[in-house]
Recover the amino acids of this structure.
């Protein structure tokens, strides 16, 4: 792998994945029954995000204590969980019902009273959600290049990019859980 230049494939994946996710949000939802209640998926996503955050914290601990093998396992597991999350997230948002923050009567319409009832927390929710979404798109090439440098055993470049990757990825994982906790009353 040392001689392979994967910059172009990483760039393509980094652009295509967020683009496809965005397109899926605007496509008409199919009338499809997957055979289970998809409304359980947001909780599953929160569990995946929680596990990813724990793995990232463990990864940092491991690398700071010279436990490189454990560091690698934690990171690879975090990547695997993130990939499962992405597939499940896309599935849910393609076939599942839309949920609106503050929609207490679940009619998919936010009236003035519902907006007023959420108060300033509505803005907090949308700020956390927006930063979560933006960073989840931005993080893709950082994670992929961090992995690439690790597999190439280019420790200096791996450390350099990981100092940017880790806090962003940890923030995305934590805010994924926060977003779920904030919107869960409206599912």
């Amino acid at each position: 792998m040392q001689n392979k230049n994967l910059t172009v494939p990483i760039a393509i994946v980094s652009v295509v994945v967020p683009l496809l996710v965005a397109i899926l949000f605007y496509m008409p939802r199919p009338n499809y029954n997957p055979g289970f209640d998809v409304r359980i998926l947001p909780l599953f996503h929160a569990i995946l995000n929680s596990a990813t955050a724990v793995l990232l914290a463990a990864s940092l601990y491991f690398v700071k204590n010279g436990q490189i093998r454990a560091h690698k396992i934690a990171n690879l597991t975090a990547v695997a969980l993130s990939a499962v999350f992405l597939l499940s997230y896309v599935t849910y948002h393609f076939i599942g019902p839309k949920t609106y923050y503050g929609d207490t009567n679940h009619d998919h319409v936010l009236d003035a009273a519902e907006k007023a009832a959420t108060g300033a927390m509505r803005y907090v929710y949308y700020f956390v959600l927006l930063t979560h979404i933006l960073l989840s798109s931005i993080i893709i090439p950082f994670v992929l290049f961090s992995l690439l440098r690790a597999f190439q055993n280019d420790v200096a470049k791996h450390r350099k990019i990981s100092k940017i990757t880790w806090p962003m990825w940890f923030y995305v994982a934590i805010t994924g859980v926060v977003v779920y906790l904030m919107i869960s009353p409206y599912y």
About this structure: The chain has one domain: 37-186. The mean pLDDT is 93. The radius of gyration is 19 Å. Helices lie at 7-26, 41-64, 68-95, 112-118, 121-151, 155-183.
